[in-house]
Amino acid sequence: MAYIQTVTGKVDVEKIRNTDAHSHLIAYATDALIQKDSDLLLDSVDKIHKDMEVFKSYDGNLIAEMTTVDYRSDPEALKKLSQRHDIYIIACTGFNKGAYNRPFLENRDIDEVAAKLLDTIQNGISPSQIKPGLIKIGTSLNEITPWEEIGLRAAARAHLQSGVPISTHTQGGTMALAQLRMFEEEKVPYENLILCHLDQLEDFELHRTIVSKGVFLSYDSIAKAKYQTRERALRYITALAKEQLHTQILVGNDFARRSCLEGYGGKPGYHSVFRDFKQELMQALITAGFSQAQADQIINDIYRENPKRAFALRAMERKQS
Ligand SMILES: [Zn+2]
């Protein structure tokens, strides 16, 4: 049997229904950021009530909450949300990108950082005792800074010791192959990796190459109009499905602003990915020549089946090298 680690404990993957593969429910960001742009402050378990109920109305029951300690996450609040709404939530350990993770990673020893990550995995994200079900690490636009490399390698080593899957932030979809090269060097199996935000990058052959290796891609900018990734995501999923490679695609909201969430009076909320995009994808698949049954299957894979494989805790064999 396979399990995911949620904020309320281990859950059998067979209980997973529609999944938001990348989200932010509670994020206090940084003081400097909030002063400049208060829209980024997600601080209310009460306000997000509406969004959780909409998600549930679309048969959603699992959210990967990708806020890290350097962007001020709140695992206790996630647990409250999970219990209040009867939704499974995965919290993550690890780090954001660039300026956020720099104070936590620069000039640090990789194995020391890995040991700290492992401690959160075994004992909970301090000061809570809530265990993370994902390790996150982010990289910058068109470069991986030296401290981000420390983060990537530490994430890899903590993963190899724990079996907790890794989900990475790519800035604008860049540096995906460079991330993979470092994970290769650290001997992380491709199928234990999720790369996020690749839908922001127009390069079908790259997407195809990455998913062919067994890596998961999270298309999670489709709900955010400013990125204009929706049409691309429809095109890419349809093309990948022709080769049965859609089995590596996940979808998510990645809302990090009040103005995207209905509970704060924003738009579009969970309707965008969990109703509208689903309908658009159905239409695109049918237009591309898939039967209704095939299209149903592909959509079911992306929303329900692929997440079971992507987020399951991996049994790590101790390989002798
Ligand atoms: Zn995010």
SSE layout:
Layout: E1 3-6, E2 9-12, E3 18-23, H1 31-36, H2 49-57, E4 60-65, H3 75-85, E5 88-90, E6 92-94, H4 98-105, H5 110-123, E7 134-138, H6 146-162, E8 166-169, H7 176-185, E9 193-196, H8 204-212, E10 216-219, H9 230-242, E11 249-251, H10 271-287, H11 292-311
Parallel strand pairs: 3-4, 4-5, 6-7, 7-8, 8-9, 9-10, 10-11
Antiparallel strand pairs: 1-2
Helix pairs in contact: 4-6, 5-6, 9-10, 10-11
Tell me what you see in this structure.
The radius of gyration is 18 Å and the shape is globular. The chain has 321 residues and is of the alpha/beta class. It has eleven helices and eleven strands. The chain has one domain (3-311): TIM Barrel (Alpha-Beta Barrel), CATH 3.20.20.140. Helix 9 links the parallel strand 10 (216-219) and strand 11. The strands form three sheets. It has a six-stranded parallel β-sheet with strand order 6-7-8-9-10-11. Strands 3-4-5 form a three-stranded parallel β-sheet. The chain has helices spanning 31-36, 49-57, 75-85, 98-105, 110-123, 146-162, 176-185, 204-212, 230-242, 271-287, 292-311, and strands at residues 3-6, 9-12, 18-23, 60-65, 88-90, 92-94, 134-138, 166-169, 193-196, 216-219, 249-251. Helix 4 (98-105) packs across helix 6. It binds zinc ion. Zinc ion (ZN) is lined by residues 22, 24, 66, 254, 256. The site of zinc ion has 5 residues, from loops.
